[in-house]
Specification:
The complex is a heterodimer of chains A (334) and B (464).
Chain A (H helix, E strand, L loop, with lengths): L13 E2 L7 H10 L2 E6 L5 H16 L3 E7 L4 H13 L5 E4 L5 H12 L3 E5 L14 E5 L1 H12 L8 E7 L4 H17 L4 E7 L5 H11 L3 E6 L2 H13 L6 E4 L3 H8 L4 E6 L2 H16 L7 E4 L2 E3 L4 H9 L5 H7 L3
Helix pairs in contact in A: 2-10, 3-4, 5-6, 7-8
Chain B lengths: L1 H17 L8 H16 L6 H8 L3 H13 L3 E6 L9 E5 L5 E7 L3 E8 L4 E8 L6 H18 L6 E8 L3 E2 L10 E2 L10 H9 L3 E5 H12 L8 E6 L3 E7 L2 E2 L14 E2 L2 E2 H5 L1 H13 L4 H10 L4 H9 L3 H25 L3 E5 L8 H13 L2 H4 L3 E4 L5 H15 L2 H4 L12 H13 L25
Parallel strand pairs in B: 3-6, 6-9, 10-15, 15-16
Antiparallel strand pairs in B: 1-2, 3-4, 4-5, 7-8, 10-11, 11-12, 13-14
Classes of the chains: A alpha/beta (334), B alpha/beta (464).
């Protein structure tokens, strides 16, 4: 799969898997034993766990350590406080951060560069932040491509002249915006017969209530796209409680959503990110920047289309681990 | 209602002005004073009553009346208390930047960018995506309108759209007093007969200001990027065509035909700079390097993607591929040789390299520097900074937002709408919407139309 999205400033993506630390850089990193902090929206999702695993493994190879993980619990204020504290922490060489929101957290992130810290961003550069001066690199999934994949996977389940419901994230967040824009663009281009109805949830756990009001308002909705897996599963549970069954596609191959798909549940397709590889690339980009090797301003990883047909193989690729027994069981039928 | 308030305010202002010997007394002067005070506050030059009196040379009563009118119109509000200098602490007036919004778009040959800004020109949201410009004007209007509507929905705290800034590839010749008429788009094949700007204006119900991409990028770089709002800047866009934008003594140069900066036409050894160092030339040389196995990096990209573009060469250089580094060094040297005479002519503070290729590491930058420093006068290069633009594609959006806000609040245009409270009620815009409606068949799309309360009409004519 090629990268179809452009970066936060319109950059063409550099392939994240091609970035390597030079021999001199590797030697310098081993000698200087860098300390890195991670500021992340949540540590509770499968995506986060995989991302962290990729970061620590790659840092460890070059004698660098992930010395602190800040779980912001989707709370921008918690992120602002953590960034302010880390900027003053003399023991920290670099910060890897996933910005929660946009303009509101830009200044706090820029404060890190002013304090002399190296900053590598995951998925998003808040408006106003510029590469090199404010951050070293954005390492991202191809979020635009992920939205496109989710649309392609949902389209066969939508009848002619049907309607799809979109569950968007009600926070100004670049990655989920890109997925939604791509999803809408794909349907507008390839299935102009389909009507799109959109509703937004402010927190992932509110996605159940959001889908309820969406299907009440538009009872002809015959499929749902949700911008990531955790709220998608909240929506699935709620639909099930209401006795409804609708095809759902989403982004991120979390355990729960993979098993829902494998057992023939409502989830029919997943656009999978590769969080382990993304974390690994972010760690290498951080070490490159710390040792004077400038990484590209935007690096992206292609998404993987996953259906019940390939969920076991995809799980192994994404998770760097064997598939769960229930996923393996689903393979028997194919 | 608004008009009644405004007229009474003006009458009071006129009565007040009459008591001031030597002060103008006409309604026109009322427009002028409102416009002057609004711009003083908006640009931050003067924000307290005392400062406003001093800078505008208007009397206290006139200032007080005009400020009260501007507050009623929703353009200004009372802000924080300032520091007291012996008496009562002065109250600062502040511009209500969220009263309206500005939509901006940059159209390039293979991509588009869209954004939304407030009335201070601050970009609040942006999106970039690949787009094949040969898909035609109608597809582009449709896509931009969809993106604009989506952004308006996401930024519901902003007021209605007061203007659209559009950056288009190639020269954009302007006509019309306020520049919101439709330019001839010479650079886009097959578009000369398509009413692109009219369509955009009618679909989005806001006046459109158009400039070339390089001019919008230069404006953005000047206000918020490497230009650092200093007086003299050359921005060079490294793309299929090589072009340069110039800010001289703080002013963006557009040229007699809107075509300034076409440096790609410069001949070097009987070939144009575009054909030697443009992105097509780089991509072709990259393909050659992949096919001849001179570049292991490009060879692997070719095997994976089946094609090579200029950004692959840039990434190769960043990842240390010797062939890519040598190729970009050669191109950078040629670009530097073309820029040196410009540097000698204009004596800029900064030369910034923008466009897709500018982000290909520092290879091109180093070669440009070397050539310019070698060929330019020592006095010209003494304090000259040659840098890579860090704004990337954002510079065009930021520039477009600044161009539109400057046009909306330009004193002569401002006086045409200020008492109506919105530029959408400016008679010039109303005329253009009438003309545009007569040439454009508007397709309505009920599913994507934003709520009516977010789409104020452009006077009585916009909804026709």
């Amino acid at each position: 799969m090629s990268i179809s999205g452009l970066g936060p400033h319109g950059e063409r993506a550099a392939p994240a898997d091609q970035l390597t630390l030079s021999e001199a850089g590797a030697e310098a990193a081993r000698q200087r034993r860098f300390s890195v902090a991670l500021v992340i929206h949540t540590t509770e999702s499968d995506w986060s766990r995989q991302n962290i695993a990729g970061i620590v493994t790659s840092l460890g190879r070059y004698s660098a350590a992930l010395v602190e993980i800040v779980d912001c619990s989707f709370d921008a204020n918690r992120q602002l406080a953590a960034l302010g504290r880390l900027a003053k922490d003399k023991t920290i060489d670099a910060v890897i951060s996933i910005p929660i929101g946009n303009v509101g957290v830009a200044d706090a992130h820029m404060g890190l560069a002013k304090a002399g810290k190296t900053l590598v961003l995951l998925d998003n550069a808040p408006i106003g932040m510029l590469p090199r001066s404010d951050y070293a690199s954005v390492v991202s999934a191809d979020n635009f491509g992920l939205g496109k994949i989710a649309a392609e996977l949902l389209a066969p389940h939508i009848p002619q002249q049907g309607a799809v419901g979109i569950l968007g994230y009600g926070v100004d967040f670049f990655a989920t915006h890109e997925r939604e824009l791509a999803f809408q663009k794909w349907f507008t281009t390839h299935r102009p017969d389909v009507r799109m109805e959109r509703s937004k949830f402010a927190q992932p756990e509110r996605a159940g209530a959001t889908v309820t009001s969406l299907v009440e308002q538009f009872p002809d909705v015959s499929g749902i796209f949700c911008v990531w897996d955790v709220p998608a599963m909240a929506a699935v549970e709620q639909l099930r409680k209401q006795g409804l069954s609708l095809p759902v596609t989403t982004v991120d191959l979390g355990r729960e959503v993979a098993e829902e798909m494998a057992r023939g549940g409502m989830v029919r397709g997943i656009a999978a990110q590769q969080p382990y590889d993304q974390g690994s690339a972010a760690a290498i980009a951080t070490l490159c920047a710390l040792t004077g090797q400038k990484p590209p301003p935007w690096m992206a990883m292609a998404g993987l289309p996953v259906t019940v047909e390939n969920v076991v193989e995809a799980f192994q690729v994404v998770w760097h681990a064997p598939a769960t027994p229930s996923l393996i069981a689903s393979r028997g039928g194919h | 209602m608004a008009d009644k308030r405004d007229n009474s305010g003006l009458r009071a202002a006129a009565r007040s002005a009459a008591r001031n010997v030597g002060r103008p007394r006409t309604t026109e002067s009322g427009y002028a004073s409102l416009s002057t005070l609004l711009n003083l506050v908006r640009t931050g030059v003067a924000t307290t009553r005392q400062e406003l009196e001093r800078h505008s040379e208007l009397g206290r009563a006139v200032v007080s009346d005009r400020l009260s009118t501007l507050v009623k119109l929703g353009l200004l509000e009372e802000g924080r208390l300032g520091e007291a200098a012996g008496g009562r602490a002065p109250r600062h007036m502040q511009f209500r930047a969220a009263t309206g919004s500005v939509e901006v778009a940059v159209i390039d040959r293979s991509s588009i960018a869209a954004g939304i800004a407030d009335l201070s020109g601050s970009l609040l949201m942006e999106h970039h995506e690949a787009f094949d410009i040969t898909a035609g004007g109608e597809a582009l209007v449709e896509r931009l309108t969809t993106l604009f509507e989506w952004m308006r929905n996401e930024r519901s705290e902003l007021g209605s759209v007061w203007g659209i800034g559009l950056a288009l590839p190639g020269p954009v010749a302007q006509s019309g007093e306020f520049g919101i008429s439709s330019p001839v788009l010479q650079a886009i094949e097959g578009w000369t007969d398509y009413p692109f700007v009219e369509n955009l204006m009618v679909r989005n119900r806001a006046p459109v200001w158009v400039r070339s991409v390089i001019q919008m990028m230069t404006a953005g770089e000047h206000f918020a990027g490497a230009g650092g709002n200093r007086g003299n800047l050359i921005l060079v866009k490294l793309g299929r065509s090589l072009s340069a934008g110039v800010v001289a003594d703080g002013k963006l140069l557009r040229g007699a035909e809107g075509a300034s900066g076409l440096i790609g036409y410069t001949r070097l050894d009987d070939e144009s700079l575009d054909s030697l160092a443009g992105s097509d030339a780089i991509a072709a040389a990259g393909m050659q390097g992949a096919q001849d196995a001179q570049s292991p990096f490009l060879q692997s990209v070719l095997m994976k993607n089946g094609t090579i573009d200029e950004s692959d060469v840039g990434h190769g250089a960043q990842f240390g591929d010797a062939y890519c580094i040598e190729l970009l060094t050669r191109c950078g040297r040629l670009i530097g040789e073309a820029l040196a005479p410009l540097a000698n002519l204009l004596n800029p503070d900064v030369i910034a390299l923008g466009g897709a290729m500018a982000h290909a590491g520092d290879t091109i930058l180093a070669a440009v520097r070397e050539a310019v420093y070698r060929q330019a006068h020592p006095l010209v290069t003494r304090n000259l900074k040659i840098v890579t633009s860090q704004m990337g594609g954002t510079s065009g959006l930021v520039g477009a937002a600044h161009v539109v806000t400057e046009e909306i609040f330009a004193p002569r245009f401002l006086q045409g709408w200020i008492l109506q409270g919105s530029p959408l009620r400016h008679p010039e815009f109303a005329n253009h919407v009438d003309q545009a409606h007569s040439t454009v068949a508007v397709r309505s799309r009920e599913t994507v139309s934003p709520p009516p309360d977010r789409r104020p009409m452009a006077g009585s004519t916009a909804g026709k």
